């Protein structure tokens, strides 16, 4: 039973990376912008956060640096696609390629660096509960932040005036513009906020989840987070559940190896990506259902004068 408690704990930690990044991308897409650059933003944020903690010894400054790096790259992406009307998909792919190359270059001297001793967290009394304590109540605060973020987004998108305006921009930017809303600025704010959350997820990987720096350490998590928004049909609660599902698949490979299951390690390593493909293939069988839930202007440029 203890091994299953450890598996659940690892699942929550792995799922947190995907949840925070996917919720950030969800904000982008609710405003009608598709950002395929999540992988690159997360990589740059990972090295920014790791380098900051190496030099300062403060994890929270590392998270702030990661968020700043993600927000900066997202702002550049936003200006290109919102004001200069470049293709969203091509610009996002370029951002991913840039992030992969730049992070590898900037991180060369940090490959052998080690972080200070990692603190252990435990909620008073709850952390001592047998089985449930180690699984649920000895997590890093960022794990609980991921849950709070999903709940906060549910309220923001469906209960607040600002969230309703954001959704209206994603559904019909022309109508929102006719009502006097600054569509471009709203979209840019959504893109920057989404980039900051992707940056936070990247910093969490290098500062807490691993914690170390190696080239390409995000290892496709940005693409899985992007797929999660579609898998969840653009609903924050489903994003959170999907993130834990994929986190569990990721951790299952290590659990099975620890149990001595005779399965080639290469097959176990590809499980998360295989699960992503299978889920997207199943969802794609009903395109009408996707269209009913997808923001109507997703991926479409907006020209205020037209």
TrEMBL record:
One Pfam family name is: BPD_transp_2
Q: Which PANTHER family match?
A: ABC TRANSPORTER PERMEASE PROTEIN (PTHR43370:SF2), SUGAR ABC TRANSPORTER INTEGRAL MEMBRANE PROTEIN-RELATED (PTHR43370)
Source organism (scientific name): Variovorax terrae
Q: Signal peptide span per the entry?
A: none
**Where's it found, cell-wise?**
Cell membrane
The protein's UniProt keywords, in alphabetical order, are: Cell membrane, Membrane, Transmembrane, Transmembrane helix
Output this protein's name. ABC transporter permease
The lineage's top-level taxon is Bacteria
Q: What is its main location?
A: membrane
Q: Does the keyword Membrane apply?
A: yes
Cellular component, GO annotation:
plasma membrane
Respond yes or no to whether keyword Chaperone is given for this record: no
InterPro entries per the UniProt record, alphabetical: ABC_transp_permease (IPR001851)
Extract the GO molecular function terms from the UniProt entry. Answer: transmembrane transporter activity
TM annotation in the entry: 6-26, 33-54, 60-84, 91-111, 141-158, 188-207, 213-232, 239-257, 263-283
């Amino acid at each position: 039973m203890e091994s299953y408690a450890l598996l659940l704990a690892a699942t929550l930690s792995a799922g947190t990376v995907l949840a925070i990044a996917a919720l950030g991308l969800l904000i982008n897409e609710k405003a009608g912008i598709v950002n395929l650059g999540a992988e690159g933003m997360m990589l740059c944020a990972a090295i920014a956060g790791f380098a900051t903690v190496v030099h300062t010894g403060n994890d929270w400054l590392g998270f702030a640096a990661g968020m700043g790096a993600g927000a900066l790259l997202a702002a550049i992406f936003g200006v290109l696609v919102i004001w200069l009307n470049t293709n969203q998909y091509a610009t996002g792919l370029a951002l991913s390629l840039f992030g992969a190359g730049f992070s590898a270059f900037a991180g060369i001297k940090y490959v052998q660096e080690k972080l200070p001793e990692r603190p252990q967290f435990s909620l008073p009394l709850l952390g001592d509960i047998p089985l449930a304590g180690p699984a649920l109540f000895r997590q890093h605060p960022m794990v609980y932040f991921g849950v709070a973020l999903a709940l906060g987004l549910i309220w923001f998108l469906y209960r607040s005036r600002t969230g309703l305006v954001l959704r209206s921009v994603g559904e019909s930017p022309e109508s929102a513009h006719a009502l006097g809303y600054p569509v471009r600025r709203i979209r840019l704010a959504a893109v920057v906020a989404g980039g900051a959350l992707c940056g936070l997820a990247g910093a969490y990987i290098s500062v807490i989840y691993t914690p170390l720096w190696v080239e390409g350490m995000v290892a496709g998590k940005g693409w899985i987070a992007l797929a999660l928004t579609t898998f969840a049909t653009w609903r924050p609660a489903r994003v959170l559940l999907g993130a834990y599902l994929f986190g569990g698949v990721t951790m299952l490979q290590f659990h099975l190896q620890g149990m001595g299951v005779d399965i080639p390690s290469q097959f176990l390593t590809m499980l998360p990506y295989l699960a992503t493909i299978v889920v997207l293939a199943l969802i794609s069988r009903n395109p009408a259902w996707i269209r009913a839930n997808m923001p109507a202007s997703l991926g479409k440029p907006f020209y205020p004068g037209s």
